[in-house]
Amino acid sequence: MALPSYETVKGKGEHEIVIQKSRFIAFFDRVETEADAQAFIEKVKKEHWNANHNCSAYLIGERDEIQKANDDGEPSGTAGVPMLEVLKKRGLKDTVVVVTRYFGGIKLGAGGLIRAYGGAVSEGLNAVGVVRRSLMTVMHTEVDYHWLGKVEHALRESTYQLKGIEYLESVDVQAYVAVGEVDAFEAWMTDVTNGQAVLKRGEDVYLEEEI
Length: 211
Known about the structure:
Layout: E1 5-9, E2 13-19, E3 22-30, H1 34-47, E4 53-60, E5 66-70, H2 80-89, E6 95-102, H3 109-128, E7 130-143, H4 148-157, E8 161-167, E9 171-178, H5 182-192, E10 198-210
């Protein structure tokens, strides 16, 4: 069973902060497998081979079944874990982050490193963006043409989202309906059309909205 909704990073993106002359660059991507996460980490490492550290963290799976954190040479527990904790606190799924550090000559200490790496991820997420993905069923309402105006108006006035209209022998009005609300939609649309509509359930798709 797919999750009815979840939050994840908007997509590929990066954001840099400077702390005590050290550059911390956070790189993000959305991933669905551990292999994808590892490939993203390796790509960043290859591009920033001359950085002092390329620390990483990722969360994958409906119940965060896969969680990994890597300090890449920083003192144990000062980089990867704080980065992972930010992803978890934000409730994100299927997200990978690499924070690349170019050392600026001033040591930060363990507490300073934890704040720096956590802050790089937190600020980076605010800059790159987070989306909520909601599972929707595409509902098809097939009616005679003289019903089109009423059906379209009712949909636009409702909480349901109009997907599109196909003009065939009859009109196929398509709407996105949250998976748990399909029965309620069918009852409502039957009422709107006095039972004159043929209602069909289409595919389930995720819709995204920025939050």
